[in-house]
Amino acid sequence: MIDFTKILSWKPSKNFLEIKTIDAHTEGEPLRVVIKGFPTLKGKTILEKRNNIIKDYDHIRKAIMLEPRGHADMYGAVITEPEKKSSDFGVIFMHNDGYSTGCGHAVIAISKILIETGAIETIEPETEINMDVPSGTIKSFVEVKNKIVQSIRFINVPSFVEKMDAKISIPKVGNINYDLAFGGAYYAIVSADEVGLTQLATKTSNVIELGMKIKKAIANEVEIKHPYIVEMNFLYGTIFTFDPINKSNHSKNICVFANGEVDRSPTGTGVSARAAVHFAKNEIKLNETIKIESIIGSTFEVKVIEKIKIGSLNGIIPEVRGTANIIGKNTFWIDPLDNIGEGFMLR
Predict the structure, then answer these.
(1) Which listed residue (60, 92, 103, 273) is catalytic?
(2) Is 103 an active-site residue?
(3) From the CB of residue 227, how many other CB atoms can be counted at a distance below 10 Å?
(4) Which of 109, 118, 276, 305 has the maximum number of C-beta atoms within 10 A of its C-beta?
(5) pLDDT along the chain (347 residues), means of 10
(6) pTM value?
């Protein structure tokens, strides 16, 4: 007989790095949150701590995001000390190619985890959480009943349109129209009809290839300059918009970001960018809620709650609502002699 207690009690060599995580998903999009084992990060600001990870600890990101422990579409977060005294903590987001500047699905999942595990004090019917992220400070509001999370909404960082109805030539595709907007990260927003994508005939591999072509073409041609934060000055992803499958919803998103990741959720920063575009085009009104589908049919609600100025640009404050689920805990061991275990990616 196999003695499984031996396996359960087994410990690796002291030379191994042990990382503990709790995993969740937000409307289908994964989030792996490091809860123990990550080195203390240096820096007073979140951007300084993010730079510290990039410089000294990127090997840990690769080990827990990529195969064999993760996969090409894994997403993660490291919790840090807050930047502001008024905030509860800070967050650094990570993915298959590096580090995001903002992430709505992670905000929702982290809020769920902290409430339902009892890691922070819960106030019913709604608990407010303030978190510092690379793009700014985000407030999430967790609806709680009998210690169970019902839904989560968050007020995102200022969002705005950089370019509207712009044109670009894509190799083997031709000229296309797009909007360029910021919702915590920059997105090129393209109608699926513009590039010949259809609901039923769309293969994920084709969407990735086309999304990355558009992203690279725009990144090569357009200089992106955030009004205040230079670390935001890059194109993060491409969002294709479709008519919704469920006709009671506003529309559907398929977002390709980082190194060809496909968001299973409608993309929190993405729907924020889209809200800025729709508001600028007078397609939605102040405080008008729209529901946007993801590639798997899950939804986020988004609305514009305030008009603001961001430098010389007209901007908005978006509010996004969604739900998340906790799906497991992991203990990962990183063997310094395991070259393959350092992380790799197959697509």
Answers:
(1) 103
(2) yes
(3) 15
(4) 109
(5) 92 92 98 97 97 98 98 98 97 97 98 97 96 97 95 98 96 93 98 84 85 96 94 97 96 96 98 98 98 97 97 95 98 96 92
(6) 0.96
